[in-house]
Amino acid sequence: xxxxxxxxxxxxxxxxxxxxxxxxxxxxxxxxxxxxxxxxxxxxxxxxxxxxxxxxxxxxxxxxxxxxxxxxxxxxxxxxxxxxxxxxxxxxxxxxxxxxxxxxxxxxxxxxxxxxxxxxxxxxxxxxxxxxxxxxxxxxxxxxxxxxxxxxxxxxxxxxxxxxxxxxxxxxxxxxxxxxxxxxxxxxxxxxxxxxxxxxxxxxxxxxxxxxxxxxxxxxxxxxxxxxxxxxxxxxxxxxxxxxxxxxxxxxxxxxxxxxxxxxxxxxxxxxxxxxxxxxxxxxxxxxx
Length: 289
Known about the structure:
Helix content is 27%, strand content 24%. The chain is an alpha/beta fold.
């Protein structure tokens, strides 16, 4: 893909040098650079990727994505962007053919219950004959491969590769845990979610987000970025849910027990053998479980 074509997909970006330069994949770790790569200089808390641009170019990178123009020997092409972290996500997915657009991608976010919800969704898809990939805390199920999890939401360039692997394995569905850190750090940029689900929001991760309002604002990024043909699923009984989902372009689908909801249980009975209830789903479907 040509550098000028990538620039057209990143608002506020500008090519310095030849926009006809073709690149093969986006990488943020200079130690992993191969010939033909596009190196993305991401500023971090400990190190600044801009310091490693010369090393990446020496390893074979054809161009660099930067937040500030650099003076470099030979004047290699640079793509100047407002936000390198977000640009990394967009570039990584573009250069792999936008794999999430080829998947029914479901994102699950919330403080508690993400992993359980993710595997419940996968079980439902599997029972209907749709083998599904998973990205989450327990591990990464990619179709032909299963990997141990390094973090709930992997780094952007790695994540794009995992989705491309799912597509290559013949999967059509994927379920992903989406952490608040990943949302705040724009690791989901360039991805296309068909469904986003919110479990709850409780006082955790405030060492990172500082306040519940900032924590909720991070979760809101997932729902604000949905398309009108997507579905936003949220817990009507959980505090902050309305704040997080409010204004989403997607169709809203609410579940709950105490408050009015589109999906809700009725006639609940519990004993030592388990629970039985009638599940009400829109518009007026009743399922005994």
